[in-house]
Amino acid sequence: EAQVTQNPRYLITVTGKKLTVTCSQNMNHEYMSWYRQDPGLGLRQIYYSMNVEVTDKGDVPEGYKVSRKEKRNFPLILESPSPNQTSLYFCASSFEGAGAKLIRPQHFGDGTRLSIL
Amino acid sequence: AQTVTQSQPEMSVQEAETVTLSCTYDTSESDYYLFWYKQPPSRQMILVIRQEAYKQQNATENRFSVNFQKAAKSFSLKISDSQLGDAAMYFCAYRSAPGTYKYIFGTGTRLKVLA
Description:
- The structure holds two protein chains of two kinds.
- By secondary structure, chain A is mainly β.
- Helices cover 0% and strands 49% of the residues of chain A.
- Chain A has strands spanning 4-7, 10-13, 19-25, 31-38, 42-51, 54-57, 65-66, 76-78, 87-94, 107-108, 112-116.
- In chain A, strands 2, 4, 5, 6, 9, 10 and 11 form a seven-stranded mixed sheet that branches. A four-stranded antiparallel sheet of chain A has the order 1-3-8-7, with no helix packed on it.
- In chain A, strand 4 and strand 5 (42-51) form a beta hairpin.
- Chain A is globular.
- Chain B is mainly beta.
- In chain B, 0% of the residues lie in helices and 53% in strands.
- Chain B has strands at 3-5, 10-14, 19-21, 24-26, 32-39, 46-52, 60-61, 64-69, 74-79, 88-96, 103-105, 109-114.
- In chain B, the strands form three sheets. In chain B, strands 2, 5, 6, 10, 11 and 12 form a six-stranded mixed sheet that branches.
- The chains are: A mainly beta, B mainly beta.
- Chains A and B meet through strand 4, strand 5 and strand 9 of A and strand 6, strand 10 and strand 11 of B.
């Protein structure tokens, strides 16, 4: 089954304790992206990756790191989490063929609810 | 920079009736893509419909259709014969043409369906 898998689904942690949210897709997609969803603000893009070892900042990258060492994985790293990073996080992936005219819709993971005390 | 605006935080519709959710966007680009996503209480993000800006014909998917007005930069979603399962948060999203990789989402419209 084609899917994007995020772990953990829920996490409560404390300020300053490094954490990683994993994201894995089994569709051989080139494009992967992280979003955070906050009430009244919709989804905002944190980072995205166009392919292995190629990443770029979205609109709200401060306080986050990412890496793309393998095509299927795109972990989100919070080196020193703070309470303002309490949010619902989504990972997404999509096909992005070279020279493709059509944008393929993103497949989303089920979300990670992160609470930082 | 591109922006996406959903001016209706919440809408209600009677079951079996029709409702239209509005979305406007701002861009200087001529080639782009627009999407509507549905987020039910389960939090999943589900693609409802998509529209390529170079296509004049409005996209349709069963009971869901869009009214795409490129000159007015408007992209509304019409849901016909509303069902209880349509109750969800709906997000409008914008992406530039291939070769650019940013997505811009609106703030969402919560749709309630009344029995």
